[in-house]
Amino acid sequence: MKFMEILGDTNVDFMGLKKYAFVFSGILSLLGIIAVIGMFLGYANIGIDFGGGTAVQVKFDKPVRIDTAREALSKNGIEDAELQEFPMDNKLLVRLKNVIAADEHAADKVISIFRQEFPDNNLVVDTSMEIGPTVGKKLQKNAITAVVLSMIGIIIYIAFRFELRFGIAAAIATFHDVLAVMGIFFILGKEMNLLIVTALLTLAGYSLTDTVVVFDRIREYLRLRRKDPIEVIINNGINHVLSRTIITSLTTALVLVALVIFGGEVIHDFSLALLIGVGIGTYSSIFVASPLLLLSKGKKKKS
Amino acid sequence: MKKTLKWRVILLAGAIILAILFFLPSLPGFKAFPAWWKGILPSKPITLGLDLQGGMHIVFKVQGDKAVENSVARVANDIVEIFSEKKINIVSAKAENISDLVIRYSDTTKGKEIIDEIKKQYPGFSNERDEPGEAVFRLSSSEKDRIKESAVSQSLEKIRNRIDQYGVKEPLIQQQGTDELLVQLPGVKDPKRVIELIGKTAILEFKLVDEDADIRKAIEGEIPEGDEILFSKEVDPATKVVRQTIPYLLKSKSLMTGDVISDATVSIDPDMNEPFVSITFNSIGAKEFDRITGENVKKRLAIVLDGNVYSAPVIQDRISGGKAQITGRFSMEEAKDLSIVLREGALPAPVEIIQNLTVGPSLGKDSIEKGIKATIIAGIFVLLFMVIYYKLSGLIANFAMVLNLIILIGALAALDATLTLPGIAGIILTIGMGVDSNVLIFARIREELKAGKPVRSAIDSGYDKAIVTILDSHVTTLLTAIVLFIFGTGPIKGFAVTLSLGIIINLFTALVGTKAIYDFVNSRVKLERLSI
Q: Tell me: domain B68-143, CATH 2.60.40, correct?
């Protein structure tokens, strides 16, 4: 019987490549750690849902230059505004550290300044978001709790279904993926907000699925062929699920590309994080999670 | 084998029919369905989140301390009254440090009498300090908690009434934590107005203007004992910009408050063609107002709302009808909103906005259109890929994918879950995961076929081997989805709901759905070759 195949039977020595992989992953993880430290020190671009503050997005009828808008705001007493423009739709996003400006809500003030300074350019408010500092702290705490708990849950489940070393390897690989995407977002200067945290957790789930599929095959071979050296077993396992891994990653990536291009600005960064994450998740299940299994021997199980 | 197949086919068909019934109302053409259909079958479309239909999500924090302070201050006022009837002179009675009641009196021999009387009348207070001429009481912490709790529940009730009066479809108003109120208002067009309406404390007070003192000196800092300076803001009705603020020197004691109002309505002044709010007092209020106006003819009585002077007309004559008017160059909307807050009454404590997310209706519409477009494009990509790569089996996988979508949306509608934009992203992600399950199964079946097994047993053992992997991978993802659901808020929760539902439905369609089709085909014809 003939099948259409992207990859035929492969026999790549993935374990032989582990040195390069560890160097590459080390760099990615380091980037992620820098991003996390940067977030705590306030260098990273933290969304107002974590940091507190005001964000207003307005849509003008006619284009407004970002410099003109900044000038209009500072002339009326708003100095610390961060502006971002979406020139295709004449949209402008204004972010402020404060919720209240003088006597008025900062969001209202921004809007009335724009109305006053650009009287013949009609505007509608797309979104406005005001978040008090205590709420930001709470959301931040919730997000961290969610990450830690899901990690623990994953380790326990995989340790229960496989062996402890599989659980730990999967958790490290997943953590690596999250760090890597955070690092890349940090370099790209993208905003870290609640939606991006959702994306990170989703990709953690995705990357885990990928790792579990590979591990599943390795576990099967470990039981069947107890005489073979473990490197060979792992290599075989990865090679045999390789075509599935590539097809799944490709289809998921296709879906995400559609989201990035057509999904609109609200979920653009969210989808981008997932797209990068799918790439890294696929890489890590082969090059990070599997080699990590070599680090500890594990007990020879009698199936 | 034959028997279980029959049951599986029935289960599958039942799930499809049920899902379609729940899914139909969410389609745009459902309006045209006959009335009898809507009468007996599900007719509720899927609920869209605020990010998709536009609206406001506001979290208020009720300032409970302020409610405690207010209630201590009320006790302080009462104490002055009580002892003046007993001919004991109280110099001052004040609330301090939120829950302390400080009483100063001149006749130091009456100290014990005063303390005993207060202990008897107000058991919630304990005597903290007792010095000649000054006694300090403190409100017990259980009483403080009770006041705070009731401030939260009363605020909730008042805010709900104000929203009902304003008229918002399907608002969500609920307590969150100990002292927070969550208000979600879909489809609101004028967010600023709504915030002012529902967030206003709306304490109405009547205070006399102190006409004996010099206001200029008072502004420079020499405020006479028992007086305060409040301002009236003159706002340009068109631009809403404050044109000027006028200071008033008022006697601090409020003669009357808004809690005696029984009704408030908007009327139009025919001379000025400007709206004003006319208020009607209840019988106690009417009597009070009659007395106050009678005692203060030719003096100016300021009408103060939340510390802002609205107007300070001269009392021309005793007013006995139990009616008063509030003017202040209102727009029609402002007058209407003011009448609502006066009619529904003041909040027991001020509320502070700690979170406010507003999405304009145009962005929401834009997001839906883009979300649907992205879903369709992504769907076509995947459908095409599967058919090209897996031929007829790919078609079966595609059937499973469409089934996934229909069951998922039907389940969301049936569970009354809210679909948010991240929720749509979650749906698209489950498309990807659904495909993965089939890819896993097909890969295994191919391996079995390559090993030379006949079609039927290749399918069976392919499924058997893939099931383990599919279960493991889905359960781990489900774990993260559940954690997200528990700890996520707002949009994230929506995402977690669609993702977890999607995973469960995926499992169903992959393990029951497609297998039943293969088995059904197999039971009719003996397959020699498999298009996979």
A: no
Mutate: best of B245, B353, B355, partner A, most A CBs <10 A: B355
The predicted pLDDT at position A303 comes to 37
Q: Which amino acid is at A25?
A: S
B421/B196: higher pLDDT: B196
Class for the domain spanning B200-358: alpha beta
CATH code linked to domain A53-131: 3.30.70.3400
Tokens of B40: 């007996």
pLDDT tens-place string over residues B392-442: 889 988 988 888 888 998 898 888 888 887 787 788 777 777 888 888 899
Chain B segment 299-318 residues within 8 A of A by beta carbon are none
A206 interface with B at CB cutoff 8 Å: yes
0.90 surpassed by pTM = no
Higher pLDDT, B389 or A149: B389
Contacts of A250 in chain B (CB under 8 A): 385
Q: Which CA distances in Å does B83 have to A145, B100, B137, B167, B386? A: 57, 19, 16, 47, 89
Domain A15-46+135-295 has CATH 1.20.1640.10: yes
Boundaries of every domain in chain A:
15-46+135-295, 53-131
Using a CB-CB distance cutoff of 8 angstroms, which residues of chain A are in contact with residue B241? 112, 116
**φ/ψ of residue B424, rounded to 5:** -60, -40
- Closest residue of B to A252, CA-based? B432
Fold of B2-53+360-524: Multidrug efflux transporter AcrB transmembrane fold (1.20.1640)
What separation in angstroms does the CA of B86 have from each of B82, B108, B110, B114, B135? 7, 15, 11, 10, 18
Whether residues A130 and B475 touch (CB distance < 8 A) is answered with no
